[in-house]
Amino acid sequence: MLEKLTQLREEIKRSLVNAVPESIEALRVRMLGKKGEITAVLKGLGQLEPEERRKMGVAANELRDWAQNAIDGAKAAAGATQQAQALSEETIDITLPGRRRGIGRLHPLTQVYGKLEELFISLGFDIVEGPHVETVYHNFDALCTPESHPSRDETDTFYFNDGLLLRCHTSPMQVRVMEKQKPPIRVVVPGKVFRRDDVDATHTPAFHQMEGLVIDKGIHFGDFKGMLELLAAHIFGPQTKIRLRPSFFPFTEPSAEVDITCYICGGKAQHEPCRVCKDSGWVELWGCGMVHPEVLRKSGIDPDIYSGYAFGLGVDRITSALYGISDPRFYFENDMQFLKQF
Amino acid sequence: MNIPMSWLRDIIDIPDDTLTFSRRITDAGVKVEGITTSGEAITNVVVGQIKSLERHPDADKLWVTQTDVGANGVLQIVTGADNLKASDYIPVALHGSTLAGGLKIKKSKMRGQESNGMLCSIGELGCTTEDFPYATDEGILVLPEPHPLGVDAKPILGISEDVLDIEVLSNRPDMNAVMGIAREAAAAYGFPFELPEVKVREEGEGNTESLVSVEIRDTERCPRYIARVVRDVKVAPSPRWMQKRLEAAGMRSVNNIVDITNYVMLEYGQPLHAFDIGAVALKDGKHAIVVRTAETSEKITTLDGAERTLTDTVLLIADHEKPLAIAGVMGGDNTKVHDGTPTILFESANFNPENIRKTAKGLGMRTDASAHYEKGIDPNQALTSVNRAMELVELLACGKVVPGIVDNYPVPRLPHTVKFNPENINKRLGLSLSVEEICGYLKRVGIETRENGDLFEAVVPTCFGSDWTEVDLTEEVARFYGYNNIPSRYVQRVTPKVPFQPGMSPRRRFELDVKQAVAGLGYYEACTYPFESPRVADKLLLPADDPMRNYLTLENPLGEDFSVMRTQTVGGLLEGLATNYAKRNGDARLFEIAWEYRPKALPPTELPDELPRLTLAAYGPDVDFPAVKGDIEDLLSVYVSGKWVYEPLTLPYMHPGRTASVSFKPHPKRDAVPVGYVGELHPQAAINFKIETRVYLAVLDLDVLYDLAKSAKTTFTPPSKYPAMIRDLAFTVPETVTAAQAEAAIREKGGQWLTDVTLFDVYQGKQIEAGYKSMAYSLRFSAYDRTLTDESAQKLMAVIRENLNRRINAQVR
Fold first, then answer.
1. Domain locations in chain B?
2. Cβ distance of B576 and A334 shorter than 8 Å
3. pLDDT tens for each residue of A142-190
4. Which of A130-134, B69-73, B165-169, B489-493 has the highest mean pLDDT?
5. Is B515 on the interface with A (CB under 8 A)?
6. Is B331's pLDDT higher than 60?
7. Does B483 touch chain A if contact means CB atoms closer than 8 Å?
8. Strand, helix or coil at B548?
9. Which of A207, A327, B464, B711 has a CA positioned 20 to 30 A from the CA of residue B752?
């Protein structure tokens, strides 16, 4: 009897070498199925003497458990091998291009506006927008622009008639905001503005600004300087230096222009030819200043109580600075080869 | 304006080089926009020394020299000049150099002898004996002193000079002059500044008062008029140094008299005019100048030979018989100074800037003089300026200055007094300067201060005009304290307003979301000009009387292409597609939120309506009507799902059979709200834009869409827990049946469990009878409270089939 058990064990061992799942299943049926040989041995135990039955029972059960494990293990191993084989036959060229739905992009100017708005909203500013076609009053008169100021010239500003024009800056919204709202005021005004410049490598007749206006008690020069530093750091990173230069705008006093170190030559070119900064090492990005008391007065705000600052950011220039775009005409060309890069 | 550095250095001591200097004055408010160096055309000329020279073996008139040029060693150079000896220092043009007139110098052989460059004469360096009185016209320029060998010869010869390009701010006309810049520069360094003393040596007989009389009939337009006279005039070219400065400043040299007037204008900002006094008619024995306004239609022939017809606002310089000059703009032809003019009257006058601006603009003749007057000139500088001209007349020996001055200045302009509170200045700047510091900064530009009761008074010099207030003083203090030295303060976060409004308005948020969504659908945001050519309407096939041709038209456009405010937003994007098509960009999908400008009346009396539109435009292999319509459906589903109606639409520039209006139908019994349209561009319009492929467009009214989005309520329905049942349905129908009709017929009897109806195939052709088409739908049934049985679905399908047959004559396959 024991001999028989040893024989079966050997046979199972032999049959499992290099077996495929189908033959392993056949082996299982032959050994452990209802009419299997090990099953038969176990069934036949009843006919043995009690002493013999106990001895053989232990051996036969041990064999059955061993066989079950061996067959299961072999089956899993053979299955894995077979699947690995099948999968390897399914190998594809993963460098084939993906099937793309195609996602578009926002215009680089919109992206920069987004970056600016993110900063201003977090600092408690409201975003407001104004009309492109403006009155001469809002664009010039209310901003204390003298009759003789060159910006009023027909060579500089687009007119529809004596009273209507295309705004040449976002500043008329300063007036519209102050007409409607009492201090404290903190707004930024994004939008297109228009100047009568022929299209060339540094000019387009429309461009993009972001006006800022802050009016409150006790606002001073140091406030707008701090604001501009935050702005420069937010947009260009801490390595960019800014410089304030005295300048003139009819509606601010003192007035300043803000330059950043040139983004093409990195501020190095002083006598080296640099088309962008004209060898000065600096690029003018925006104008700003303390709101002229007369502008406040015209809009019904008492300059003895309130003071404020205003700035006008050149968004095209900021965008050019960020991406090293050398020619503003790209913004209006709408060439996919350009738009896809942002 | 362009100013040679040497001119400034004549007036003030500048302790720095050009670059350092220009940075310093830029920081103080005089913006140097660029520095150019004159004489740049001449390159690679160095100082050399003749070591030896001998006759050329094969040419009588040539010499062979050994010339030491420092780092480049000793070169053999052949020359034809006879004025050289060993040890002479001379300018040497090395191999590869460029000389005046673009002459290039290269190594060569002269009669068999190698010559490695050229020894230069003054002419070859673009100079004359005026520049180097010690040099000869013939022969090589021999330098009078030794110099290090091999160094750049240009600075030594004074043929290169830095010229500053300075931006003049419109509120500071005083800076439109060398003296003004010098004053500012001194202030930037904190140096005291005084105008250089002008010395006039009068000579000859008589005096000006007995020769000339001046009558000002309009003192509003002419506050001051000074006349001086020069006799025995010798008109000749002006000296080189003066010509060079004028040229560096961008002016052309004419002759000594004209050059003196221009030189003084650049130096002091005061235009001068020189008349031939013989042409000024006599009255009571004097040449009598009358300053008056013109008669309407009065005529004058100006220096440029043109006859001008005047209006009664034009100010004239005249005598009692005729006009002599248009005041402040241009002289008359009849008083022009010429070679033989014996006696000249110099005018130094002050005119009303506004009037000069109007006159110059009205006559279309903006001159250097009018440009100066327009900005406003201090009448108090007129005397110094004319005297400076007299000084130059004497220096250049071009005439004798007649003693005496006629100066008609009825109401002298006095310095303007501004009250100020130092406290306010500090508050505005965020500083705490002492009164002494503030007054010290003001003093730098000549503003004297004094205490007056509780306040202070500043006396603002007349050169700054008369409209200054405390804030202008504040700016001066800030400038000299240094803008970049003022401490920064960082913004405090504000207490929110109640009721709270987000900084980004819901409307702007919505626009950004729309942009993001459309970009997500594969479109690239474009940026176009809001003005365009009226011919765009022709390209878009608009009829002549189409209301979209009612444009707001610019009075002064940059040409026709930018002349009208657009009344549709497709033109700009089509130009964009055309650009891409011309560049062979395989496909292009653009979108933009832009505005239509609709005048309320024409000619316009008030602001137009600016109507925002979302516009999509695309071409490409995967772009067709269903693609673009699908994009619109995807986009709209973000805001309101369902209830969108598409109906055939006719527009002049759209394909007549492939365009649909898009509207929103809130309820079957309510009117649909039009939102926009989608479709194919009329192929003829595409050709007109030079796009030779199919183009698809969609235009949506953003205001309407926003209102819909705002009013749409998002409500929550829990998803069903039970599996849905999917059934396919295919049938043939007459080809005229639309998908909308088929879907309506399915839904009509679909019952509450029918959730989705998806068309997945439409087929016409083989196996389908002519005039019919096959449509295949997938229907999805789902209930919230049970698992649907096969039986109940079969019942529903039977009802639907029957309804399809009844409604649209469908034969189920």
1. 2-39+162-189, 43-159, 208-408, 416-485, 506-711, 725-812
2. yes
3. 998 988 888 998 889 999 999 999 999 999 999 999 999 889 999 999 9
4. A130-134
5. yes
6. yes
7. yes
8. helix
9. B711
At residue B41 the predicted structure's pLDDT band, cuts being 50, 70 and 90, is confident
**In the CATH hierarchy, which top-level class contains the domain B43-159?**
mainly beta
Q: DSSP character for A198?
A: -
Nearest to B603 among A109, A161, A293 (CB): A161
Tell me, yes or no, if the two domains B43-159 and B506-711 fold the same way.
Answer: no
**CATH fold for domain B208-408:** Phenylalanyl-tRNA Synthetase; Chain B, domain 3 (3.50.40)
Asked, as a colleague might, if the bond just before B155 is cis with ω within 30 of 0, I would say no
Q: What is the CATH number of domain A109-339?
A: 3.30.930.10
**B199 band by pLDDT with thresholds 50, 70 and 90:** very high
CATH 3.40.50.300, applies to B2-39+162-189 = no
Q: For chain A, which ranges sit under pLDDT 50?
A: 271
Best A270, A335, A336 member to test B by mutation, with max B CBs in 10 Å, is A336
Q: What is the DSSP string of B585-613?
A: -S-EEEEEEEEEEE-SSSS--SPPEEEEE
- Look-up: residue for tokens 């002479």? B88
Rg of chain A (C-alpha set): 42
Closest CA to B693 of B583, B580, B581: B581
What is residue B227's predicted lDDT score, i.e. its pLDDT?
Answer: 96
Residues B553-567 have pLDDT tens digits of 999 999 999 999 999
* Neighboring chain B residues of A160 at a CB cutoff of 8 Å: 552-555, 604
- For A83, what's the count of Cα atoms within 13 Å in the CB-facing half-sphere? 6
What ipTM does this complex have? 0.85
The alpha carbon of residue A215 is apart from the nearest alpha carbon of chain B, in Å, by 12
**Encoding tokens for residue A294?**
């007369």
Please say whether the dihedral angle defined by the alpha carbons of residues B314, B316, B320 and B322, taken in this order, is positive or negative: negative
pLDDT in tens, B86-111: 999 999 999 988 887 778 889 999 88
Put simply, whether B430 touches A (Cβ < 8 Å) is yes
Alpha-carbon torsion, ordered A189, A195, A199, A201, to 10 deg:
-60
| pLDDT value of residue B64 | 92
Residue extents of the structural domains in chain A:
2-89, 109-339
Say which range, B193-207, B447-461, B470-484, has the weakest mean pLDDT.
Answer: B193-207
Cross-chain residue pair B169–A248, CB shorter than 8 Å: yes
Task: Quote the mean pLDDT of chain B.
Answer: 91
Fold of the domain built from segment(s) B416-485: Phenylalanyl-tRNA Synthetase; Chain B, domain 1 (3.30.56)
User: Is residue A108 within 8 Å of A334, Cβ to Cβ?
Assistant: no
The whole-number pLDDT of residue A278 equals 65
How confident is the model at residue A264, as a pLDDT? 63
At the second CATH level, the architecture of B725-812 is: 2-Layer Sandwich (3.30)
Q: How many whole angstroms separate alpha carbon B695 and alpha carbon B685?
A: 10
Q: Enter the tokens of residue A179.
A: 């007409």
C-alpha to C-alpha distance for A340 and A321, rounded to whole angstroms: 18
Q: Count the Cβ atoms, other than its own, within 10 Å of residue B742.
A: 22
> Residue B471: which of A248, A292, A337 has the nearest Cβ?
A292
Record: fold of B506-711: BirA Bifunctional Protein; domain 2 (3.30.930)
User: Nearest Cβ partner of A226 from B489, B531, B585?
Assistant: B489
Could you say which DSSP state residue B67 is in? E
Q: Do A198 and B558 touch (CB under 8 A)?
A: yes
Whether the model pTM is above 0.95? no
Asked which of B158-167, B352-361, B490-499 is least confident by mean pLDDT, the reply is B490-499
